[in-house]
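ARCHIVE CARD
CATEGORY: sequence design from structure
SOURCE FIELD: tokenized fold
FIELD CONTENT:
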């Protein structure tokens, strides 16, 4: 559903125009410095896409462990002018030389993740600058160079290390004796930087200035490209095989959004290689026959049903999802109403299943399921401009600190470890195996929701690796079913699964329900399931927003005079612990 109806155009023209006079927009991200960058661009009259790209660049500086220009992302955009929903796929690609045995040992066995991710072999061709260029071409209002100014200022003048960055530096310290370039920027006096210290990154400032002056080609060719190739191919750890031709050939791709109804709403997100929208919509579709809104957030049965729907949807994800340029992905079949009714019928309201098999959606080719892995990193940011257009993007280098390799002052991703390491299972090829030019499967799930009148009412996303899907789904259920404001929906306990158990966020009301949930017949285990959700919500005709209380994110609105107001977040809230992601 890339284009919405002409009726919706008329509706939006009616509703959006009066609101546009009241604000220059609103921005939300996981770091106040990045949110401020987005707000600065909105205050200058920039579009939502301009603001989102300014946040992406600023996060390269202040959140180097999670995202940046050395990685890729997915953008879902709503254009109020013609009521269209568009998406841009900026996911990284494997070098042309990559083979299905890339992450296998000498005996053909999959490598342990901790052995596979550091160094050059895990680096995919970065996509974020090409994504940015495409977004600016289609929806930008300010000059290209203007969007870079906040990030350049942060890199040049320095930024203060926050609690999250300190914890990630400490986490990775034991690896960095092998990565001198990373130490040279993020260690002070021979030790990882601590919260409160100020870091400068003049090398990154130089890189950003060059791209700002010469455009996206300055990243994919020339000095920056040479720096990337040198870092990858000359790495002391697992040198890779990326070439200048791989960089020059990279394209960000516009794709149709994946959209489907849920109750009185329309939920839209990314197509493959993102599994986000498809799996979120499968979970919601499986839940739709249950009135969990009436049950409410405090009833263990609501969470039991969410857990059952989740595990069935993830089974389909592992079997069918991958890069649709390389494998047939039955997206329409996976979210088909009749198929989801079949899947929902597998959920017994009174007793947990003993297994969670993949189904046979319409249009599916025979395939073998195989588990893929994603590290709980990544970041999300959202912007709405004064006209009512929306830019909603999830961005990542995998993490923490991607491959650990530095080029031009920025970290290079380790996204190729999102491929399934075993290329075959039971003698059949795996959908998400490594192949040259292929984009790895992702759980990133930037989502925009429309109400029954076709008006956009939510824009959100999260960090968290494979848990991203559940962080987004939980938040959607909180707003659309439980009727909570976005802030309260984000703060709801997180839920996931693993090792045959239902996993619930420790030290929360959901952990207090553990025994009641276990009474349905599946083991329940409290765990650290931190999240980093950011989003915006339209309430009574006005846009507001919320940041995850587990993160340091915030939301800033910009009035018609360009004055900025923090309306949520800006520090870890209510004594909450730092998120275990990003």
């Amino acid at each position: 559903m890339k284009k919405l109806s002409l009726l919706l155009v008329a509706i939006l023209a009616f509703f959006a125009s009066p609101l546009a006079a009241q604000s220059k927009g609103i921005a939300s991200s996981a770091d106040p410095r990045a949110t401020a960058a987005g707000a600065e661009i909105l205050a200058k009259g920039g579009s939502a896409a301009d603001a989102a790209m300014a946040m992406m660049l600023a996060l390269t500086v202040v959140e180097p462990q999670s995202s940046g220009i050395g990685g890729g992302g997915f953008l879902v955009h709503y254009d109020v002018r013609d009521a269209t929903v568009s998406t841009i796929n900026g996911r990284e690609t494997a070098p042309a030389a990559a083979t299905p045995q890339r992450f296998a040992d000498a005996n053909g066995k999959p490598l342990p993740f901790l052995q596979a991710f550091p160094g050059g072999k895990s680096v995919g061709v970065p996509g974020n600058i090409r994504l940015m260029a495409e977004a600016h071409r289609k929806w930008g209002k300010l000059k290209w160079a203007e969007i870079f100014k906040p990030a350049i200022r942060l890199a040049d003048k320095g930024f203060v290390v926050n609690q999250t960055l300190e914890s990630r530096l400490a986490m990775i310290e034991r690896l960095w004796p092998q990565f001198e370039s990373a130490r040279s920027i993020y260690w002070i006096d021979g030790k990882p930087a601590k919260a409160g210290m100020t870091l400068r990154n003049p090398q990154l400032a130089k890189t950003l200035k060059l791209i700002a002056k010469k455009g996206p080609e300055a990243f994919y060719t020339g000095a920056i490209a040479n720096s990337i190739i040198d870092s990858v191919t000359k790495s002391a750890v697992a040198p890779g095989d990326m070439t200048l031709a791989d960089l020059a050939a990279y394209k960000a791709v516009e794709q149709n959004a994946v959209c489907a109804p849920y109750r009185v709403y329309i939920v839209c997100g990314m197509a493959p290689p993102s599994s986000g929208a498809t799996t979120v919509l499968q979970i919601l579709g499986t839940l739709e026959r249950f009135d969990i809104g009436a049950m409410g957030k405090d009833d263990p049965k609501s969470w039991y049903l969410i857990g059952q729907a989740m595990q069935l949807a993830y089974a389909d994800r592992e079997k069918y999802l991958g890069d649709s340029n390389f494998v047939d992905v039955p997206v329409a079949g996976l979210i088909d109403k009749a198929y989801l009714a079949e899947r929902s019928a597998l959920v017994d309201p009174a007793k947990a299943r003993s297994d969670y098999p993949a189904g046979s959606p319409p249009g599916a080719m025979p395939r073998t399921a195989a588990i893929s892995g994603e590290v709980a990193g990544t970041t999300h940011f959202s912007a709405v401009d004064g006209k009512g257009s929306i830019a909603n993007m999830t961005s990542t280098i995998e993490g923490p600190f991607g491959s650990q390799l530095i080029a031009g002052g920025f970290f290079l991703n380790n996204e190729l470890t999102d491929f399934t390491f075993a290329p075959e299972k039971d003698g059949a090829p795996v959908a998400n195996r490594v192949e040259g030019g292929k984009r790895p499967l992702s759980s990133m799930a930037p989502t925009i929701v429309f109400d029954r009148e076709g008006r956009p009412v939510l824009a959100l996303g999260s960090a968290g690796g494979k848990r991203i899907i559940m962080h987004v789904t939980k938040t959607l259920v909180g707003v659309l079913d439980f009727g909570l404001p976005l802030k309260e929906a984000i703060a709801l306990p997180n839920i996931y699964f693993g090792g045959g158990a239902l996993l619930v966020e420790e030290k929360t009301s959901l952990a207090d329900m553990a025994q009641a949930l276990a009474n349905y017949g599946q083991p329940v285990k409290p765990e650290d399931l931190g999240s980093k959700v950011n989003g915006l919500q339209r309430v009574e005709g006005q846009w507001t927003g919320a940041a995850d209380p587990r993160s340091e994110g915030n939301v800033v609105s910009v009035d018609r005079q360009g004055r900025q107001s923090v309306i949520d977040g800006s520090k870890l809230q209510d004594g909450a612990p730092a998120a275990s992601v990003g």
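CARD ANNOTATION: The longest strand covers residues 72-79. Residues 29-254+374-419 form one domain.
SHELF: design records, drawer C
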